[in-house]
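$ ./design --mode recover --in tokens.txt
reading tokens...
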């Protein structure tokens, strides 16, 4: 069974604007930024340490944003380590925080991570439900770049889940939706998604027994990665 890969689990909210925050809260934000970078580097050990530090400090400060963001990052670490129940507990805690209701981005992130965890637990209907919530919340994000990234992630998640379910019509539907959406965005904003999206198209056509089309999309994926000096080709060449 195909499992979701770690890279595309990484939250896009790694560099939020700092305003009207105490020095202690700003300190937590910096730790969260370190966490984000370690997740980008796929270093779960260091990411876990930073995320736990931010989580504990946020709890002590009653810093709701910090609790939500660190809980999402900890759920990502748990996901990568296969500790799904623990990851869900962090996400459930984030949902109880005031900041959860204030931030469409966090709501999208929490649903995205729940969807990935449920999918890896073979709870596919729950996974679909959470991914659709994530798509809805992503569309509510006011920042255009964050909106674009999270919406693209939501489409990508639905593609992977329907791939696992072997529902090719739904796979192609969301591949097309993702491509149509991504073509309207600035490439420098969604290039990571385009790397994965073109690879997903390649995998789709490979499964259909159309190698020429598959190679075309695999090459587009590689070209996009090289153009943007993107070092992590998340699942290219898996056929």
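writing sequence...
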């Amino acid at each position: 069974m195909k499992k979701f890969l770690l890279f595309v689990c990484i939250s896009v909210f790694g560099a939020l604007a700092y305003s009207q925050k105490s020095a202690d809260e700003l300190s937590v934000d910096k730790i969260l930024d370190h966490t984000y970078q370690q997740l980008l580097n796929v270093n779960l050990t260091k990411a876990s340490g930073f995320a736990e530090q931010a989580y504990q400090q946020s709890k002590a400060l009653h810093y709701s944003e910090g609790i939500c963001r660190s809980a999402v990052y900890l759920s990502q670490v748990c996901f990568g380590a296969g500790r799904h129940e623990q990851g869900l507990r962090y996400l459930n805690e984030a949902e109880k925080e005031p900041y959860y209701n204030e931030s469409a981005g966090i709501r999208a992130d929490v649903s995205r991570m729940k969807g990935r965890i449920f999918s890896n637990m073979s709870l596919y209907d729950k996974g679909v439900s959470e991914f659709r919530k994530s798509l809805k919340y992503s569309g509510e994000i006011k920042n255009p770049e964050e909106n674009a990234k999270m919406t693209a992630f939501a489409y990508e998640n639905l593609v992977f889940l329907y791939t696992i379910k072997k529902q090719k019509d739904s796979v192609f539907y969301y591949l097309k939706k993702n491509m149509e959406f991504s073509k309207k965005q600035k490439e420098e904003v969604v290039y990571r998604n385009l790397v994965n999206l073109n690879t997903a198209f390649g995998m789709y056509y490979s499964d259909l027994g159309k190698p020429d089309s598959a190679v075309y999309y695999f090459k587009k994926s590689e070209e996009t990665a090289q153009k943007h000096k993107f070092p992590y080709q998340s699942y290219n060449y898996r056929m």
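exit 0
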